[in-house]
Amino acid sequence: MDLRELYQEVILDHGKNPRNHRFPEPYNREGRGYNPLCGDKITLRLQLEGDTITDIGFIGEGCAISQASCSTMTEALKGKTLAEAEEMFGKFHKMLTVDDDSEPDLDALGKLAVFAGVREFPMRVKCATLGWHTLNQALRNERGEATTE
Ligand code: ZN
Predict the structure, then answer these.
(1) Per-residue pLDDT reduced to its tens digit, 15-44
(2) Which one of 3, 60, 100, 145 is most buried, counting C-beta atoms within 10 A?
(3) 43 C-alpha to center of ligand 1: Å?
């Protein structure tokens, strides 16, 4: 199966049945994200213990790409340290925004690599990165909304 087929499958699967689609209890970080271009909204909550994300969940509405991206992100991040999360975001963001034809780092990104196809659609990049921007905001523990603008 190539990355394009896998992309379709992941978007459909996670868009319809998002993982961790609930608020963790307890939680000590929260971020809210909004993508005005598409209308995607996400509220992300996580429990940070020391340096480790022990639980994470979100409630959101919007297009399948935004919800599927946030769903795969929560799956990838549970149990990870902040440094690992940051590194993953760096790779994910680079994959979507750096204009070269290099293959995504499948080993490091796993399922997240399927979003490489979104790179060709700049409007969609904002949908795919909304969850991650919201994560950054939650980790900085800032109030207010993260937007993709
Ligand atoms: Zn969207």
Answers:
(1) 999 999 999 999 999 999 999 999 999 999
(2) 60
(3) 15
Question: Global pTM?
Answer: 0.91
Contact indicator for 56, 20 with CB cutoff of 8 Å: yes
> Per the domain annotation, does 68 fall within a domain?
yes
Domain that holds residue 130: 3-140
What distance in Å separates the CA atoms of residue 96 and residue 6, rounded to the nearest whole number? 17
Chain segment 44-56, per-residue pLDDT in tens: 999 999 999 999 9
Distance 118 CA to ligand 1 centre (A): 11
CA distance 28 to 30: 7
Does the residue 149 lie in any domain? no
